[in-house]
Each structure stands twice: as C-alpha cells, then as structure tokens.
Specification:
heterodimer; A: about 280 residues; alpha/beta; Carbamate kinase; globular; B: about 270 residues; 2 domains; 10 helices; 10 strands
C-alpha cells in the first residue's frame, strides 16, 4: 500500500485511495463517506454555562457542583466551561480597540480556561481534573479512564484561525460549539447544555413572561421560525446538519439541578434539538 | 450603575444575547484594525509543489530569498501526498474528521520544517500556533516566517458537507492568517497557472480563468476548484482580505510579480 508511485505529472505520490486525487473534487469527497468509529461511546459531554451558572456565584454554582458530583458514580463526565461575562467584556474592549474576530477568539479562550479552573477547584474533592487545552484531546482517553470526570476549556482552539462571521465580529465558535465538536469527534453518548432557563422559548423568557416553551424541535424547523434569540450558539444548527454521530442535544436549567442527573439518564427534562 | 465603566456596546454585549442579529450587527459597525498591513501571506502547495522535490522547491526558495527585505512574507505550507495517504488509512479505519485533522497537521508540519531548514541560513524561523505572538518580531527582524498551513482545530474540526475529509485544510489556515492580520495579499503558490474550468491535469479542454468573483465562481458549480471551497465562503464574510491570487510557482518570477502587485495568475475576489 505504501510504495512510492512515479507518475506522469512529475510528482511523487504515495499509493493510496486518494493518490493523485484533488481533495476538492466533489466525487472524491463523496467517496470518503464511510462509517465513523466511536472513541468514547460511554461518555457524556456536559457544558456548564459561564454567564448563566458560574458568574451567578455560589447560589447557582454549588448546587450544580453537588448535582455533578452525584452523577460521577454512574456516568463518565466530560465537562466544558464557557467564558461568561468576562468574555463579553473583553469582546467589547477588543472591538473598541479594533481587534479582529480571530484575536477576540484567542482572548475568549482565556476566560473559559479561568472558569475551567474555578469548576476544577470545586470538583477536586471528587477526583475530577481540569486538563489544559493543548494536551486535552490527546490525553482525554487516559484521563477519562482514570478519573471519574474531566473538565476542559469549552471554547475550541480556533484562536487566530476563527472564521470571520457573516455579521459583526463576535467569534462564531464559542463554548457551545466547542462542546458539540468534541462530543461529535469522540462519539460521546450525549451532549447537555446547562443554562439558567428551562430550554428554548419562542421569545427570551427573561424579557417576555408570556413566551412559549418549545420542548423539542428540529434544526430545520428552528431555522424556519427565525427566532430573535436562542439560548445557545446559532452555529450548533449547522454542526447538527453535518453531524455523523451526535444527532441531538438537550438544553436544561441548572437552577433546577436535579435535572442534570435526569438528563444524563436520557430523560427529556429541557429542550431537545434534533438533526433532521 | 453596575456596569458604568462599559461603553454602550459593552452594555449590550454583557447583558444581551450573542444569538441576537441586532446585537451582532452593532459589533460590526467599525472595521477591525489591520494588524500587519504590509505583510504578504504565501501558501506553498503540498501535492502541487513541495512533493515535486528539489526541481520545484529550490528555485522558489531562491525567489523567496531575493524578495527578503523587499516584501514581508508569512509562508504557510500544504500537506500533499502523505496527507492523502494518512487520510486514506484513517478513512478505512473509520477515524472521525477531527482525528484526520490532527494527521493532516503533522504532514503540513513536516513540510514547514523542511522549508524552514532550506531558509535557515537566512535566519527565517518556523513558528507553531503558540508562537504567533512572536511573529511580528521575526517579520520585522528577518522579513519572513514559516508556519504550517493547517488551522489548529485538531479534534474540534468541523465535519464537511460531504464525506469525511477535514474541510478546513492548509488553504483555509493560510487564508485565515491573511484575514486576521489584515495582510496586503494572499498568494497561493501551486503548479497550475491558476483557476481552470476543470482540473487541467485530467481535462485537456479545461479553460483558464483570469479573474472571477466568488459569486461567479459559485454559479459555475465546478466539479473541482484550485482552492479549498471554504476559503470562498470566508472571503464573502471577510473584513480585510477579500481577494486571493493563485499563481504557478513553477515559473520563476511569478512569485515576485505577485508580491509586486502585478496581475499574474488568477485573481478571485468577493464582490
């Protein structure tokens, strides 16, 4: 399989299925659609909101920590943290100073890292470890077998390479996207986003008391409804479209911490968004 | 009064939802600052260029050296044949896109190291993503740096629309550096004159395209294109780098012409 192939085009190729092919050719791309191996099928990825939980301090965070600790005996948890209000602040200063999207993405990682350490400190008595981003992906299989749970910086390592958004300058891949992409790559069993609302509403329930709750919805239907705000990053809908392994995620209310255990057990206790 | 230190935009950002299109629009009212407006980003192809070995690479290295001191160059490298091999093996084993991205990163890193050693006597460093904070110094001191073109998404790489191969590879990684730094140009060095209506290596009737907009290029719906398709989408959303140039680096002088701003190869631009 690995003999060098001399070729008429004067390039040195390695014999392989993709030898001499343009990876940009649509037919070649279609030919690569094969089943995907699940690396960590018994794990659950769960994101603890920065602004919604950690920034609210002790009253919101401690019950969530306690709920997580009771789940560790029965579930392998991969716990992500966002940057919360400090990321919003650094975005506003950064934009004012003329920083491009890639720089804002680089700055946001630091806030999520800080929150990973905060949560890591509180979960340390249970043996949960916060792992630095540069080794996290490679060492995750080791840590998840030796510790009951791990914590990571949920903002993905896009940094200077963040994609320019269609509108404005905010990095499109935030901590929701980072947890989704990780769960998809490692083939985790579920993704749960822990926020401070029960799930998705047709309007922001914090501003509109008459907002209607939406218990479940598909990505296509959600796009069609053109809601003004969502309790998660819009890019998750695109990621769901392209997902091979992770076909749904659930948003739950961390202010009702017993829902964390129930969500991990597969119960429908918030809003579930499905791929079509 | 809690947030009295914040600007109006700051208050919106701290209190509002980042999924709100009106809020997002406010964040784009002022253009970002060009960080390195005099620098040129150059991407050297893997399969199309470095895999050809000495015959292709040495003359290009000479030309890069000739331009030191005249043009600042941030040089990214492609993957090529070994990346294709690694992807093939990985696909056969069912590895996810994020793992294939890691494999592709290692190959473009090998190519970056080789370019680095060829330029070592001129003091040109190879930098990994964590070293990008030193890039402005190296550029000011030596006039060029080498980096691996693969964006550092690794396990967090998005899946492609079709198939399993990482969609954001070395063209995209190099392009995004030109966008984030507000660079003067983005030049892709390949082994064809530029963009054709089909792969000129496989179709003798393929026609050369001198200049084309992203919208026109998308309307053509070509089976194969010379640059990764996500670059075209990103150009439309880009704040700084809204055009790219594809040149044939096998012809000596082409890189210099492109650096001098001459209309060589194919220019693709966002309207």
């Amino acid at each position: 399989m690995a003999e060098p192939a001399e070729s008429a085009d004067k390039r040195h190729h390695l014999a392989s299925m993709l030898m001499r092919e343009s990876l940009l050719d649509k037919e070649v791309q279609r030919s690569t659609d094969m089943p995907v191996f699940r690396m960590l099928p018994d794990t659950h990825v769960i994101k603890i909101g920065g602004r919604s939980i950690l920034d609210a301090g002790r009253s919101a965070t401690f019950p969530v920590v306690e709920a997580l600790s009771t789940c560790l005996a029965t579930h392998k948890l991969i716990i992500g943290t966002g940057g919360g209000v400090r990321s919003r602040h650094v975005f506003s200063i950064g934009i004012d100073l003329g920083m491009p999207t890639g720089v804002l993405a680089e700055l946001a990682e630091a806030d999520a890292l800080g929150n990973a350490h905060i949560l890591g400190t509180l979960l340390a008595p249970y043996g949960v470890v916060a792992i630095p981003p540069h080794i996290f992906g490679h060492l995750l299989p080791l840590f998840i077998r030796t510790a009951p749970g791990v914590i990571f910086t949920a903002v993905p390592p896009y940094a200077l390479w963040e994609h320019p958004p269609a509108v404005g300058r905010i990095p499109p891949h935030g901590s929701d996207a980072g947890t989704f992409l990780l769960a998809e790559c490692f083939g985790s069993m579920s993704l749960t986003l822990v926020k401070d609302v029960d799930g998705l509403y047709d309007q922001d329930p914090k501003h509109f008391p008459t907002a209607n709750f939406i218990p479940q919805i598909t990505a296509t239907e959600l796009r069609r409804r053109e809601l003004e705000t969502l309790p998660f990053e819009r890019i998750l809908l695109d990621l769901l479209d392209h997902a091979r392994l992770l076909k749904q995620f659930q948003i739950i209310n961390g202010r009702k911490p017993e829902r964390i255990r129930r969500a991990l057990a597969g119960e429908h206790v918030g809003t579930i968004v499905y791929a079509d | 009064m809690r947030y009295e230190l914040l600007s109006e935009l700051g208050r919106y950002l701290v209190e509002g939802s980042l999924s709100d299109a009106r809020l997002l629009a406010k964040t784009g009212q002022e253009p970002p600052l060009p960080i390195l407006p005099k620098a040129n980003v150059i991407k050297i192809g893997g399969q199309s260029f470095i895999d050809r070995g000495r015959a292709a690479v040495f003359p290009l290295i000479e030309e890069i050296v000739e331009n030191l001191g005249r043009h600042d160059m941030i040089i990214g490298t492609g993957g090529g044949s070994r990346a294709r091999h690694a992807y093939s093996v990985g696909l056969d084993l069912g590895l996810p896109t994020g793992v294939l991205s890691v494999l592709g990163t290692y190959v473009s890193m090998q190519n970056a190291r080789m370019m680095n050693y060829l330029l070592a006597q001129y003091g040109i460093p190879f930098i990994e993503p964590v070293q990008f904070a030193q890039l402005p110094l190296y550029l000011a001191e030596r006039g060029a740096v080498i980096f691996f073109g693969m964006p550092p998404y690794t396990f967090w790489h998005e899946n492609p629309d079709v198939g399993r191969i990482p969609p954001h590879r070395t063209d995209t990684g190099a392009y995004l550096i030109s966008e984030v730094f507000g660079a003067k140009s983005m030049i892709f060095v390949k082994d064809e004159e530029g963009l054709y209506t089909a792969d000129p290596k496989k179709d003798r009737h393929a026609q050369f395209i001198k200049t084309i907009s992203v919208a026109e290029l998308k309307a053509l719906d070509l089976q194969d294109v010379v640059v990764e398709r996500p670059v075209l989408d990103m150009m439309v959303s880009a704040k700084n780098r809204r055009s790219i140039r594809v040149i044939n680096g096998l012809k000596q002088g082409n890189l210099t012409r492109a650096l001098n701003g001459e209309d060589i190869g194919t220019l693709i631009y966002a309207d």
